[in-house]
Amino acid sequence: MHAPSAALRGRATPSTKPPQVSARAAAATSRPLAVAPRAAASAKAPSAPSSPWPCSKFLDVGVSTPPLGLGLAALGRPGYINLGHGADITSAKSVDDMRARAFEVLDAAYASGVRYFDAAASYGEAEEFLGRWLASRGVSPADVVIGSKWGYTYTADWRVELSAGEPHEVKEHSAENLRAQFATSRDLLAPHLRCYQIHSATSDSGVLRNDDVLNELRAMKRDGGMKIGLTVTGAEQGDVIREAMTVKMNGGGDGEDSEVRSIHWFPYDRVGDVDADP
Predict the structure, then answer these.
(1) Residue-level pLDDT, tens digit, the chain, 278 residues
(2) Residue 54, preceding peptide bond in cis (omega within 30° of 0)
(3) CATH of the domain at 73
(4) Three-state DSSP class for residue 30
(5) Whole domain around residue 80: which residue ranges?
(6) Would you list the DSSP string of 158-224?
């Protein structure tokens, strides 16, 4: 579990257009849903007791959430980069098995009061698992905050052991990749998706200086009410955060608040946050 990541605040009116369904999403929803016995016993998300944590209106979307979320990086794929996650799962590792385990964890988190859930295009089948869980449990968009991320493509193809030097995921911070991955994220997670984030923004990727990317993100915010954010990793993440806090997208002078004002990041060894009100 981790704290929610960066949010670029705004109050654009959410789109009422029904999402288009991609081939991947259609295939996902057509597959029979296999769940473990404990998960199958719950026809809807379990009722949550009063949260043991102080809650706030995260991202100004009207949902009261504690300062704790659940990320699906280790739930959506059988191997998690170089952390030895494959050894954590000693039984079957099929997509259906992993989905059933993800449902159990999601049920437990929801019952504990967690209301922020985070996925990414590169987390294997995490977006599909999360979307199916939300639908099968009848969770209303008014009850949760769902975020996802773009920028990496999952390339391990459900394998745990890869050849030497073969990556589990490939990074590409282009406008073309943003458009393609957002279409899939929207298909699998709408109407719950509220926050869309740059996955691992770095100085060398130049993503915060890419006008095509920034204009695409601004259109998502303006036309669909999407909250736009970023996550950062690596030794230069402080520099990236400072750069993000100065970003104004083209047209930002039209009365919209287009600056990044509140950033939460989660490097691998700690969780921190910084708030700025210039």
Answers:
(1) 444 444 433 333 333 333 333 344 344 434 333 333 334 434 566 655 555 556 666 666 777 777 789 999 989 998 875 556 556 666 778 999 999 999 999 999 999 999 999 999 999 999 999 999 999 999 999 999 999 999 999 999 988 888 888 888 999 999 999 999 999 999 999 999 999 999 999 999 999 999 999 999 999 988 988 988 899 888 888 899 889 888 875 544 444 444 443 344 433 333 333 333 32
(2) no
(3) 3.20.20.100
(4) helix
(5) 23-40+61-158+167-275
(6) T-SS--TT--SEEE---HHHHHHHHHHHHHHHTTTEEEEEEEEE-TTTTGGG-HHHHHHHHHHHHHH
Tally of CA atoms within 13 A in the half-sphere of 137 that contains its CB: 25
Q: Which two tokens stand for residue 277?
A: 């009100």
The domain total for the chain is 1
pLDDT digits (tens, 9 = 90+) for 174-217: 999 999 999 999 999 999 999 999 999 999 999 999 999 999 99
This prediction's pTM: 0.74
Amino acid letter, 195: C
Q: What is the 3-state secondary structure (H, E, C) of 130-144?
A: HHHHHHHCCCCCCCC
Q: What gap in Å lies between CA 149 and CA 2, rounded to an integer?
A: 15
153, β-bridge pairs: 170
Q: Establish if 147 belongs to a structural domain.
A: yes
Residue 255 lies in a domain: yes
Q: Return the CA Rg of the chain.
A: 18
Domain-located, residue 124 = yes
Does 11 fall in a domain? Answer: no
Report angle CA 140, 145, 147 to the nearest 5 degrees. 125
Q: What is the rounded CA–CA span in Å between residue 30 and residue 34?
A: 12
